Amino acid sequence: MVGDEARGEMNTFQRNESKESLFTFISAGDDPPKGDFTVQKKSPKLCGSNYPLSIAFIVVNEFCERFSYYGMRAVLTLYFISFFHWDENLSTAVYHAFSALCYFTPVIGAIMADSWLGKYKTIIYLSIVYVVGHLVKSVGAIPSLGNQAVHVVLSMVGLFLIALGTGGIKPCVSAFGGDQFEEEHTSERSKFFSVFYLSINAGSLISTFVTPVLRGDVKCFGEDCYALAFGVPAALMVLALVVFIAGSGLYRKTPPQGNVLLEVCKCIGFAVKNRLKNRSHQIPKRDHWLDWASEKYSKQLIGEVKMVTRVLFLFLPLPMFWALFDQQGSRWTLQATKMNADFGIYVLQPDQMQFLNPLLILVFIPIFDLGLYPLISMCKFNFTPIRKMATGMILAGMAFGLAAIVEVKINETDMPQLVPKESLIQVLNLAKNPVQVTIQDQNLFQQPVEALQNPDEYSRLILNGEQQSLRFILQHQGLSLAFNYTVKEKSVYSLIVFEAEGSLSSRLITDLEAKPENGLAAVRFINGLSQDVNLTIDNKQFIAVQRNYAVSGYLLVERDKYDNGKCITETGEFTLDLGLLDFGASYTVVITNVSGGAVQTWKSEDIKANNVHMAWQLPQYLLISAGEVMFSITGLAFSYSQSPASMKSVLQAGWLLTVAVGNTLVLVVAQAAPMAQWAEFVLFTVLLFAVCIIFSIMGYFYVSVDPEDLEEKEEKSETPSRGNMISLVTQKTKL
After folding, report:
1. Do residue 631 and residue 594 come from a single domain?
2. Where do the TM regions start and end (predicted)?
3. Which domain holds residue 173?
4. What does the pLDDT look like over 220-249, one tens digit per residue?
5. Does 540 share its domain with 641?
6. Co-location of 570 and 633 in the same domain
7. H-helix or E-strand spanning residue 227
8. Which of 15, 319, 524, 593 could form a disulfide with 661 if both were Cys (CB 3.0 to 4.6 A apart)?
9. How many domains is the chain partitioned into structurally?
10. pLDDT, tens digit (0-9, with 9 covering 90-100), for 638-687
11. Residues 35, 36, 38, CA angle at the centre, nearest 5°?
């Protein structure tokens, strides 16, 4: 076993994989194989060192696989929203259902490897499933292939196969790497795990930065290129499989030895069944409920299972931490889409913010291990593992508290909430003089609307039903004109007032009801000329607008300065300068005149641009990353120290299941209790603080043990053979 030696080495390079991989190389199959089998020849060494050449293939394989997984997952939430047009709650629910499945399936992979196929074949077979899942997912992202139902089916099948593949190989790859070393090379094996986890972090860090660029900055099929964003991770997974197979002749392959997780489950199941079968008061009670398994299982196994169940009991509150932590890829990414992403020299994609977590983890681990923890120790404060984990929970809760504050500030630029029997309206005065607008039964627009006055905000119309015909009276230069328009509830309108053929006229047009998604800008055009126009935006977007104040539809564009457009009229081609179309804003551009080789325009900002900068997410990423270092790495190390050597894989399975359950909690909240986003952030904050209190109380009463003491005690005690065990049923008959 290499756990004690490897733990200190690997912490330096651990990122959010810390929640899933610290014990990965410790399973039932890691003990020296029992029985007669052919001893394999020693693997060639790297450059005359004690490092097997085979580990180079394993490290490259892990880098490619992690790039593949995290790169695909980084763009997944925006894929659901932009490509499938799902709402935020459904997108979040499916994202976390996929994440939960990725942490349930490692149990399947561990059983396959330790009880049936062995690690090598399990990695090969499930990697093939993994590749197929990526390919199916990439094909499902091609817009021209089938309809919406086809895309959804292909994507869901692909995600299921990916979850089966990535989860299934998770407990096998690092364990297989540890198998390549001979028993006397423990220090080299420890350093290998450091390099192994460095490859995990490198793959995660690079992919979470690169794949959002492939999605947002590259266009294919006229929109964001999700096919490419999924295709590159698919290619990396193919490369991972090819590299792993290429080293086949160099690997040391140990046969399956049986899965200790199954033994533990059988032992617990037998104890429960035996206790229920023998409920008579005539049967003597036993000190512990697991002692009811002593008729079939050895004292040593029962003692080890007792230690494991004590730690697993402490795991019960832990899923709430992961419920918050894994929302970086869902709720926090969606929050970033509603923010200003311009950092001056670079415009960040909203899903790129996720790269901060692996980056901060690499920074924080040495700071905490070499600076913070020693400093706390010098202050004579007993910063126990339980206290560290509780502190990590508090930091994660604070991160979500900050996320709630940021969300409230973001909402200030949102459109007002639409409710039944209400609508919103603004007035765009395109005439040359002020106009007084009066609306039947409404007390709005007390002051005249100036010519080309940019409205500050929309006004509310109160209706008497689902729709109502309203009379609009316009007073202009001593003249009064009336117009009737039908207004529907929960709608947004602009009343355009303009001069046509020497008389005042108007038109009621429908506006956007919400901000454009994913940080895009929306723009529409009103042609105030007496001739039709054809507009070209950034040499890609073409719009035809008829004469005499006709209105175009909305055009969604990337945030940018558009100063090189073209306006083609009957009299020639002119330059069209729209200026900056900012994140999340909606604009109405009125073409007023043509002179001097350029088009004269007036631009109204109907929906305000995102004015909260994405940099305000940095504090919440700092807090949750610091919380992960204290919670995840400490929790795994503590669990490691509290379990016998043969039970490491059982605790690893329990740890991974806490991540799965945490993601399931997010799924339930997103679907069962939809609420305002800031309120949901506050809810998770309160829940985590409450769970932290419960966990602290449980930790206060927890008594640490040394697994070696148990082993020494069991060695000194006399253990009866299974052949001499008497079942409870026989004892009851004698009584």
Report:
1. no
2. 67-86, 92-111, 123-143, 149-173, 194-214, 226-251, 307-325, 355-376, 621-641, 653-675, 681-703
3. 46-258
4. 887 889 999 999 999 999 999 999 999 988
5. no
6. no
7. helix 226-246
8. 319
9. 3
10. 877 777 767 777 777 888 899 999 999 999 999 887 889 999 999 999 99
11. 135
